[in-house]
Amino acid sequence: MTVSQASLFPSRTVTEFIEDVKTLTKEIQDLYCLDQIPWIIGVSWGKDSTAVLQLVWNAIAALPQEKRHKTIHVITTDTLVENPILSSWVRKSIEKLEQAAQEQKMPLQPHLLYPALQDRYWVGLIGKGYPAPRLQFRWCTGRLKINASNRFILDVIKTSGETILVLGTRKTESTKRAKVMTELEKKRLRDHLSPNASLPNSLVYSPIEDWRTDEVWMYLMQWENPWGSSNNDLFTLYRGASADNECPLVVDTSTPSCGSSRFGCWVCTLVDKDTSLSVMIQNDEEKEWLQPLTDIRDELDILDDRDKRDFRRMYGQVQLFERNLNGGISIEPIPGPYTKKWREYWLKRVLEAQVQVRNNAPDEYKDITLIMPEELSEIRRIWLEEKHEFDDSLPKIYEEVTKEPYQDTRLVVDNHVFGSDEWDILADICQEDTMHLELMAKLLDTERQFYAKSHRKGIYQELEKCFDSSSRQKDDAIKNAHLHRDIKISSESGNIDAFKEIIQAKDNSQENTKKVIQQPVKEKENPNKQLSLSWANLKYPTQPEEE
């Protein structure tokens, strides 16, 4: 919950705020000149981080050239699923910052960071099948934003021993943020520098920690941007992303502020439906070309998506959990990744949106890319190598949607033995039995993978994993999970009688299955022929020959 903004009057007058800016300028200069510890400014190019960057720039610019002795790294993380309007603004701002720093001999060096390929959003959702992020499974934030920044910070620490991280965090952003910042203040060993809870040998400096939202805007609008960007344009971006299309002056606690607008990933399912992107479309007819993106986001934002997901977890096993249902407790499987059908569907939808946007967007956005070529290649690799889906459907989907030939950035993936023809034959043999098709595909492709290796050590363990994850039908797999859960509960509770009863029922069930399989062969067929136990004769028992 966002903390209500305090009134501009009488908390602090404009004169008092100007004095605070002067005090912060001197504070920044003193900290900068105190030692050789490199600085890293984390910038999202929203209002808060822009205000901090402008404060630091103006303070360092006031120093004589000989005192600008250490580099200040300005880092920005592009998740590759950012709001396209803001993404364009960020890139232009970085270009202006870099150019101005060179011209004015400022020690600021911008860095545009990206998530590692395996951490990217579409690789996770379409490739591996991760469901759209929820508060209970927020798999995106660390992979898309935190990891890339932390890698850069750790590299600086390895080189210099420590670093000072300058951030635009403010206590008035939320009660949780205020509590965390206050607790870290108590652990300060140096003035103004708090310890970093997640990264050792790094200190956090938050110069505008006590500013209110209206004061942030006052500074941005009254102090000229030193690297040539327009703070008025930033103001317009926030106003366009506010539902009422306004950024009013905050005069009391009931007045809304455009500072409440938040920019972020256009696919985000962790926020309410009324995101900045959809409000931009609402406020500006010229941005209607962005509608396909909000359509995909709304389609992903379904609370109950069990019909789109596997009944097993990512590792192929059924995991049960207690769910409150109609006033009672229901023991049900935890839904797993998106099924093959739905992963292919999401790929098709993203490519369709990309085609639509390119056809309808203004000239400056005509080359917009929603899913990068290297991401498509990684998704294809995951489907082929990890999920054993050797029908290799990605190139076909790409060409059907884009009407362009698919060119993989890694040609090695084209050297595979099986293809869509073999998959279709296997599907015909297995008929409607999807589990049998999955098992056969895994077994065949596992053998194919080991065939290409110089040694086959570990093949039996890998084949065993195929049977463990795919040899049971859905109902049987869930029943087996319940059995193991009952055994665990009875053993932990010390109920010996219940434990024996469960084990006996399990043994009886296995014995009955064994008797069915090992029934004697009729004499008229071939009394000397023994029925061998295999998956094939379990699934397709031999029929007596017609006389």
From TrEMBL:
Pfam families with a match to the protein in the record: PAPS_reduct
Classification via NCBIfam families: DNA_S_dndC, PRK06850.1
Location of the region described as Disordered in the Swiss-Prot/TrEMBL record: 508-547
Official protein name in the record: DNA phosphorothioation system sulfurtransferase DndC
Annotated Phosphoadenosine phosphosulphate reductase domain residues: 41-223
SUPFAM superfamilies: Adenine nucleotide alpha hydrolases-like (SSF52402)
Gene Ontology molecular function, alphabetical: transferase activity
Keyword field: Transferase
Transferase among keywords: yes
Species this protein is from: Aphanothece hegewaldii CCALA 016
Top-level taxon of origin: Bacteria
